[in-house]
Amino acid sequence: MNAARVSDVVAAAERVLRQRFANAGASLGLDAAERWGPQDPDSLRRLAEETHRLNEERRTLEAAIRERAARVRESGEVAVWSAAHVRLLDAFIAASAGDENASTHVSVASEERAAWETFSAEDERPPKQNCFYVTYDPELYEALFGFRPEDA
To answer: In whole angstroms, how far apart are CA 8 and each of 5, 77, 81, 131, 147?
Structure first.
């Protein structure tokens, strides 16, 4: 795997973006628990508290992403960040080719890829990422960003 590592500025922005990805995954899990989990008062109270905590965390992460994305824009490295994600998404799409059960995954990844291709220095923050259908190759991710996706 021949991948050029991004700068520390891009890696720092990516780390916060990956934290938002984890937050979205946790929120999705809470949504499922609310719909199909225990409905007793204690369980519902805990879900409400955790949902509130995740919403607060998401607001903090969104502000941090805007700040980190501004640093990437100032460094002139938006295209580098975008190209890294396009490469990851291309790898995901290629790995899913031929899997008839992955058509939704590929469609979502293709839309995400298009969003990263059009991401530019004028954008306040990078594209949203799908935390359910799209996964990145952890080794390629680490080669590009210097840390594994789960270590953000």
So the answer is: 9, 11, 11, 24, 11
Query: What pLDDT, on the 0 to 100 scale, is given for residue 122?
Result: 82
What's the rounded Cα separation, in Å, for the pair 13 and 10?
5
DSSP category for residue 100: G
Domains of the chain, residue spans: 8-151
Query: What's phi and psi for 69, nearest 5 deg?
Result: -65, -35
Q: What are phi and psi of 59, to 5 degrees?
A: -60, -45
In tens, the pLDDT along 70-80 reads 999 999 999 99
Q: Which burial class, exposed, middle or buried, applies to 124 when counting CB atoms under 10 A from its CB (0-12, 13-18, 19+)?
A: exposed
Rounded-to-integer distance, Cα 12 and Cα 146, Å: 10
